[in-house]
Amino acid sequence: MRFDPWDAAFVADPYPAYRELRERGRAVWSEATGQWLVPHYADVSALLRDRRLGRTYLHRFTHEEFGQQAPPPEHEPFHVLNGNGLLDLEDPAHARVRRLVAKAFTPRTVERLAPAVERLAGELADGLLAAGGGDLLTAVAEPLPVAVIAELLGIPESDRALLRPWSADICGMFELRPDEETARRAVRASVEFSDYLRALIAVRRRRPGADLISGLIAAHDEEGRLSEQEMISTCVLLLNAGHEATVNTTVNGWWALFRHPDRLDDLRRHPEKLSTAVDELMRYDTPLQMFERWVLDEIRIGESVIPRGAEVALLFGSANRDPARFEHPDTLDLVRADNPHLTFGAGIHYCLGAPLARLELKASFGALLAAGGPPLRLVEEPQWREGYVIRGLRKLLVTV
User: What string of DSSP letters covers 191-205?
Assistant: First the structure.
């Protein structure tokens, strides 16, 4: 099978194509995507830390200097929102914003959320079981991280239904070659979500609370405070990155467990394996398959010299199945002890919300595994959504 992100069969199972890419070399040019594909774990891990690459180039070059066309002016709301978030900032701006965000989004913040996360996960699991089953995606996987992020940000329950559609529309722009309709939806969602958060920030300035937005407003150091746009972009990134990855890890993980009933039965009997199991499910079927970086200064990967202005595609899904790093990489090993998967990235862009994601996943899987009554059973083989970069199922129908 060849690397083809627009082919449904490839999206459903990209791993044979990854094996072929790893055999072809350390960097493989893709005519279809116009990128250098990097499939090996060691290279992906090293390049995530290499400052000759960047998520953006605008901290050093104009579009013209870098040989790129500026995005259409009508797309500006999306690019302003995305460009001021931690995922796309580069140093020194990234270091400043991350330092200030970390003052508000601390390990204690995550610890304080733990009881609420476990309660919400239990309620959602009980609801699915009481109904005799249903779509695990919409009944458990989606509501939990949205509710947790809303709780974290202090968003009223009456407004929480807005969050998932906004996130889905914005994340459409992270796929390869998004069409104009996708861009239009992303721009509209960017404007609406930004306006909503701007109003909420204004309320928190007058009446601070115990939520993260109040913490972001208060965060400061000798270099100043976060701008309003940086706060807005941070909140949107927490929702988009935090909840899209958690949703897809949940459903992709359950689909993997249903295909390995012996592992699923063992996990039911031994819930103490849940910590290593969650990390193994993230490695085995990675929710973010590709992470793109611009080449800011010429680099060499193996025999390939990659010039400034090129784009590399770091293939997380391939790196996490690389036999040079993982023993028996195509085996689902729920007690895998040596598991430095790259699902959360590495380097300065390592996912700030990784502890929260692990907390949510352990609570979600734990609640469904421990709930009373007969175990979940798969109703039908699921179909994959269109979209390769953020890879997940359309639905996951289960019964009890």
Answer: HHHHHHHHHHHHHHH
pLDDT mean across residues, the chain:
93
Lowest mean pLDDT among 297-306, 335-344, 364-373: 364-373
Q: Is the pTM of this model over 0.85?
A: yes
The answer for residues whose C-beta is within 8 angstroms of residue 169's C-beta and 6 or more apart is 185, 186, 188, 189
Q: 113 vs 107, 141, 197, CA distance in Å? A: 10, 18, 21
Task: Please tell me whether residue 292 adopts helix, strand or coil conformation.
Answer: strand
Tell me how far apart the alpha carbons of residues 41 and 299 are, in angstroms, rounded to a whole number: 17
d(CA 181, CA 163): 20
Domain 8-399 falls in which CATH fold?
Answer: Cytochrome p450 (1.10.630)
The answer to whether 318 and 21 are in contact (CB under 8 A) is yes
Q: Are 250 and 361 in contact (CB under 8 A)?
A: yes
Q: Which run of H or E residues covers position 241?
A: helix 228-259
Nearest alpha-carbon partner for 320 in 294, 293, 287, 352: 287
Rg of the chain taking only CA atoms, in angstroms: 21
Measured CA to CA, the distance from residue 43 to residue 319 in angstroms comes to 9
Pick from 225, 209, 254, 202: nearest CA to 375: 254
Classify burial at 231, counting beta carbons within 10 Å of its beta carbon; exposed 0-12, middle 13-18, buried 19 or more.
buried
Task: List the beta bridge partners of residue 143.
Answer: none
Enumerate the domain spans of the chain: 8-399
